[in-house]
Design brief:
The chain is α/β, with parallel strands linked by helices. The chain has two domains: about 260 residues, Rossmann fold (3-Layer(aba) Sandwich), CATH 3.40.50; about 160 residues, Glycogen Phosphorylase B (Rossmann fold, 3-Layer(aba) Sandwich). The protein has a seven-stranded parallel sheet, with helices on both faces. The chain has a six-stranded parallel sheet with strand order 10-9-8-11-12-13, sandwiched between helices. Strand 11, helix 13 and strand 12 form a beta-alpha-beta unit. The protein is globular. The two termini are about 30 Å apart. It binds uridine-5'-diphosphate-xylopyranose. Uridine-5'-diphosphate-xylopyranose (UDX) binds next to helix 2, helix 12 and helix 13. Belongs to the UDP-glycosyltransferase family. It is an enzyme of class 2 (transferase). It comes from Triticum urartu (Red wild einkorn).
Length: about 450
């Protein structure tokens, strides 16, 4: 087939997302932002959880590469094993693809591959691209401070902060204020801790050898953290987020089908009255936590939309709510298996977001000015909750000793929705929203950084 002039004339970016919803979303948002600034887009994706072709804009290329990963490994919560297997199994196919693209470029059949962007977790492709002489940048889909944790991990282990022990939970981490030990990472099992430490060492080494680091954050909300990264890695750093605000063209990237009926239901609710509850795409909670959450919502007497996705409750086949509790909830709640989250957060009836503090959920909440009720559970979420509650002060925490107990969710909802503290939180959230709107608008720090990336000759 004769190549189209569009293909030949445009610089091309090849993007390689990690196949998790929380990583696919920011990578596809970056794709849309680069595309809107004139770059042609190729999405290179392992077969596992590959996006559907029909959902992507017509002129994107989607190339799926075999990963030979059994579905049970891909679905397990053992992220380190999955990421190592992906890097191992996809290396040859990635090399073949990129070498082929370079040949076509040389023969004048296709445009110039300007650069590759791979999730930081793709450490092997980052080094393969480098071997083939293609500039390859790493995308950190989470916060800048999370990347600082990655950089500090070996020394944090050496100093005995990690693996986390319950007796040390509240000890201040002097190297990373205002973190305490439990904000770092809750891997307490020794074997999993070793695997995770090994993974982070590979990630950091991959980034250090890349052509630059792109972070889904903004100078205006994590300026000091970004400066510190710059001082620790001798690479260009582009803070171009929050990425969902960087272009008006949206890309449909949900792996699950959205239940849009909750938007109609929200239309029937009073402005500023509803609590939206979601724990993202990955974490699992046990039945006790699930039921306490349900009691908290029921007893709060507030209307709510709650995302109970498949496998949210990990020790139980069904996440059914017992009859007594259902009665207590009456018609005040709407449970869906997956929501159009950004539209829900934008809805005028929504007053608060009870969240696990995934980085995407957090930045989506900030961009809509919705204050948060934080119940972080794993990974980067504890650190993000620390920033939400104690640095930006745009949310309150569900105060939990150990296991979630009756009254704790209700108390957090009341603190945010009724008290003086809630008023101050809402005011600060309005201010923070202005900050992110400004930095992602024309001439703002993220807008300028994105243009610098597009124009750069890395
Ligand atoms: C994971 C980690 O848990 C998170 O901490 C890390 O920052 C990224 O990887 P996840 O748990 O899925 O991500 O949370 P989050 O980062 O919030 O991403 C979830 C995404 O799914 C968001 O973009 C959100 O808008 C979307 N979503 C969630 C929906 O579209 N509908 C829903 O019902 C729930």
């Amino acid at each position: 087939m004769a190549p189209s002039s569009t293909n030949r004339d445009r610089r091309r970016v090849v993007l390689l997302p990690l196949p998790y919803q929380g990583h696919i979303n920011p990578m596809l948002r970056l794709a849309a932002a680069l595309h809107s600034r004139g770059l042609a887009v190729t999405i290179l994706h392992p077969e596992t959880r590959a996006p559907e072709r029909r959902k992507l804009p017509a002129d994107y290329r989607l190339v799926t590469i075999p990963d030979n990963i059994p579905p049970e490994v891909a679905a397990s919560r053992d992220v380190a094993s999955f990421v190592f297997a992906l890097n191992r199994n996809c290396a040859a196919a990635f090399r073949d693809y990129l070498a082929g693209a370079l040949r076509e470029e040389e023969e004048g059949e296709d445009g110039h591959v300007a650069f590759v962007v791979a999730d930081v977790d793709w450490f092997v492709p980052l080094s393969v691209a480098r071997e083939l002489g293609v500039a390859a940048l790493a995308l950190m889909t989470s916060s800048a401070v999370r990347f600082l944790v990655y950089l500090a991990y070996p020394s944090l282990c050496h100093k005995g902060y990690l693996p986390v022990q319950e007796s040390n939970f509240n000890i201040a981490v002097e190297e990373l204020p205002p973190f305490v030990v439990q904000d770092l990472h809750l891997v307490m099992d020794k074997t999993r801790h070793l695997a995770y430490t090994d993974l982070l060492a590979h990630i950091v080494a991959g980034v250090r050898q890349s052509s630059g680091l792109i972070i889904n954050t903004s100078e205006d909300i994590e300026g000091m953290e970004i400066e510190r990264i710059r001082s620790e890695i001798a690479l260009p750093v582009f803070s171009v987020g929050p990425l969902h605000m960087m272009t008006s063209s949206s890309v449909e990237s949900s792996l699950l089908t959205e239940d849009r009926s909750c938007l109609d239901w929200l239309d029937t609710q009073r402005p500023n009255s509803v609590v939206y509850v979601s724990f993202g795409s990955l974490v699992g909670i046990d039945t006790d936590e699930f039921l306490e959450m349900a009691w908290g919502l029921a007893n709060s007497q507030r209307p709510f939309v709650w995302v109970v996705r498949p496998r949210l409750v990990h020790d139980c086949e069904s996440s059914a709510i017992p009859g007594e509790l259902q009665q207590k909830m009456g018609n005040r709640g709407r449970i869906v298996s997956w929501a159009p989250q950004q539209e829900v957060l934008r809805h005028p009836s929504v007053a608060a977001f009870l969240t696990h503090c995934g980085w995407n959920s957090t930045t989506e909440s900030i961009s809509e000015g919705v204050p948060m009720i934080c119940r972080p559970l794993s990974g980067d979420q504890m650190g993000t909750a620390r920033y939400v509650c104690d640095v930006w002060k745009v949310g309150v925490r569900v105060e939990v000793e150990n296991q979630l107990k009756r009254g704790e969710v209700q108390a957090a909802i009341t603190r945010l929705m009724d008290g003086k503290e809630g008023e101050m939180v809402r005011e600060r959230m309005r201010d923070l929203r202005h900050v992110v709107v400004k930095c992602t608008s024309e001439g703002g720090t993220s807008d300028v950084a994105l243009q610098r990336l597009v124009d750069s000759n890395i």
